């Protein structure tokens, strides 16, 4: 009987162990907490049963306690493993993705970016300073008008509101800037070309003899810059037209506006030897290029001259010449080699070419026009001046040779060459020494 009761109790304990094992944790942290609580409850219940506390045999209690302790240890190990895995998992931060996607800038790019931001931030301040400067000039001019007897060379010319009038004489000549080279230039070169065209308009506007100006192939980045950075100031330029067509089409249009009543009159150097200009030579279209074999001897009335709007640092040599030849347009070069001795290439920037042409219309002398316009860094010098200085130098050498005195009364048969006045100075020195000795 006792053996049957012991067998029943053993089966009951085994069933309790199976329930504890089924409630053991697998991977979930919440299940671990519940399982540990259940195992503790089971252990407490089993410890209060008479068989577990005071059974006569006592052979089941140690095994049951060891199994429960093993189950609790496995629960704690699973918790530690999950905590370690969570600590090792990388946390996604939004800043890391942005930093990885953002491109890295070099020091020079950062400096340029800061300078551009600084320039843009000071735009309004510069406008205010310009207004104050103009106001100060007007005040100084009013003071000068009040005291006309007091000379004031620093008084600026009158500043009128609105569009200023053009004081120069309009002549029937058109200069076209061919700007169809955008694909060959960098952004800074495009910026330089825009400044050169702006300077050309300013020079033509203030010249005593003005030409018609036109810009062909106007579009792309050039137009974006003129519309944005320059705030569409070109739309109010007087005597300058902008076209999206190429230079050949614009040159044909130039013939029409030069025939209009306001097309200009023949004046300045255009009057010189006007009879020598053949009728068929008037109204010609010439593309100016340094590679051309033809030399431009003079400007002719009702003619159109094309200047290549290209800033390339001499990367594309002869491209303007090839462009003109492909379109069947006559080419010519300025007579720089006939008048100047140059230390560099005979390639000029856009505004210098126009300014030289304006100076020729004013003076009728290419040499004088070159010397007034070309910068000193070009090292240009008039050939006439060089020839004169060479001849003058030879005459001076001959005169100096005649003044040299040769003394052949030296010992050893050598000749002493004395400059003029040397013997007289020595004689005066001897006399002075004699006087001092006598004293």
Spatial strand order of the main sheet? 3-2-1-5-4-6
β-strand number = 10
Could you tell me the strand content as a percent range? 5-15%
Q: What's the structural domain tally? A: 3
Q: What percent of residues adopt helix (DSSP H or I)? A: 40-55%
CATH structural class of the largest domain: Alpha Beta
Beginning-to-end CA distance, first to last residue? 168 Å
Structural class: alpha/beta
Tell me the overall shape.
elongated
The radius of gyration is 50 Å
Name the helix and strand elements from N-terminus to C-terminus, one letter apiece.
HHHHHHHEHEHEHEEHEHEHHEHEEH
Please tell me the CATH architecture of the largest domain by its name: 3-Layer(aba) Sandwich
State the CATH topology of the largest domain.
Alpha/beta knot
Number of helices: 16
Biggest sheet layout: 6 strands, parallel
* Average predicted local confidence, pLDDT: 73
Biased composition (Acidic residues): 393-405
Enzyme class: transferase
Organism: Lophiotrema nucula
GO molecular function: tRNA (guanosine(9)-N1)-methyltransferase activity; tRNA binding
């Amino acid at each position: 009987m006792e053996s049957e009761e012991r067998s029943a109790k053993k089966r009951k304990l085994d069933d309790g162990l199976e329930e504890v094992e089924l409630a053991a944790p697998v991977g979930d942290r919440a299940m671990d907490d519940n399982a540990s609580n259940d195992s503790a409850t089971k252990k407490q219940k089993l410890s209060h049963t008479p068989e577990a506390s005071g059974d006569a045999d006592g052979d089941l209690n140690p095994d049951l306690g060891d199994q429960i302790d093993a189950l609790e240890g496995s629960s704690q190990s699973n918790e530690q493993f999950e905590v370690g895995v969570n600590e090792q998992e990388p946390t996604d931060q939004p800043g890391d993705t942005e930093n990885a996607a953002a491109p890295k800038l070099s020091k020079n790019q950062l400096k340029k970016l800061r300078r551009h931001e600084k320039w843009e931030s000071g735009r309004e301040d510069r406008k205010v300073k310009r207004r104050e400067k103009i106001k100060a000039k007007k005040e100084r001019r009013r003071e000068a008008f009040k005291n006309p007897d007091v000379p004031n060379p620093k008084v600026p010319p009158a500043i009128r509101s609105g569009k200023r009038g053009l004081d120069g004489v309009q002549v029937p000549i058109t200069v076209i800037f061919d700007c169809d080279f955008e694909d060959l230039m960098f952004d800074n070169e495009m910026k330089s070309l825009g400044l050169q065209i702006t300077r050309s308009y300013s020079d033509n506007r203030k010249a005593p003899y003005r030409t018609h100006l036109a810009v062909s192939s106007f579009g792309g980045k050039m137009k974006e810059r003129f519309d944005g950075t320059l705030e569409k100031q070109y739309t109010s330029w007087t005597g300058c037209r902008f076209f999206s067509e190429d230079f050949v089409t614009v040159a044909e249009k130039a013939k029409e506006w030069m025939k209009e009543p306001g097309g200009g009159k023949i004046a300045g150097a255009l009057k010189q030897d006007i009879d020598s200009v053949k009728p068929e030579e008037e109204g010609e279209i010439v593309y100016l290029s340094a590679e051309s074999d033809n030399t431009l001897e003079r400007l002719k009335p009702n003619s159109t001259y094309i200047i290549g709007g290209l800033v390339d640092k001499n990367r594309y040599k002869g491209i303007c010449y090839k462009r003109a030849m492909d379109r069947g347009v006559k080419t010519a070069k300025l007579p720089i080699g006939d008048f100047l001795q140059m230390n560099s290439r005979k390639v000029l920037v856009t505004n210098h070419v126009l300014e030289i042409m304006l100076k020729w219309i004013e003076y009728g002398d290419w040499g004088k026009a070159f010397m007034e316009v070309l910068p000193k860094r070009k090292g240009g010098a008039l050939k006439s001046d060089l020839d004169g200085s060479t001849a003058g130098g030879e005459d001076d050498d001959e005169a100096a040779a005649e003044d040299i005195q040769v003394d052949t009364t030296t010992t050893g048969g050598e000749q002493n060459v004395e400059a003029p006045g040397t013997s007289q100075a020595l004689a005066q020195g001897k006399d002075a020494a004699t006087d001092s000795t006598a004293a």
